[in-house]
Design the sequence.
């Protein structure tokens, strides 16, 4: 497991959640994991997979599954209050 400082973790988490939220990825809507690496500084790109695995473990985001283009995820509607807190904070 890579060591990520809390500030970097927070930046990546907020970027992932905000992108899913603005594209309305709840339930049927989903987004490929590779799309989250765009728009981040190059030194953060290696930590994106670690943060996504941690968010899945905490059930903030859920795995949609493997599509023909890659692995996809979506937001957990049951954690909407936590998701909105992450975006606003």
Sequence:
């Amino acid at each position: 497991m890579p060591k990520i400082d809390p500030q970097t973790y927070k930046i990546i988490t907020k970027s992932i959640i905000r992108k899913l939220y603005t594209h309305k990825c709840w339930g049927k809507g989903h987004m490929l994991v590779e799309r989250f690496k765009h728009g981040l500084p190059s030194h953060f790109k290696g930590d994106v997979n670690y943060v996504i695995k941690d968010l899945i473990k905490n059930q903030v985001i859920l795995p949609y599954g493997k599509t023909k283009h890659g692995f996809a995820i979506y937001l957990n509607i049951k954690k909407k209050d936590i998701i909105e807190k992450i975006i606003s904070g």
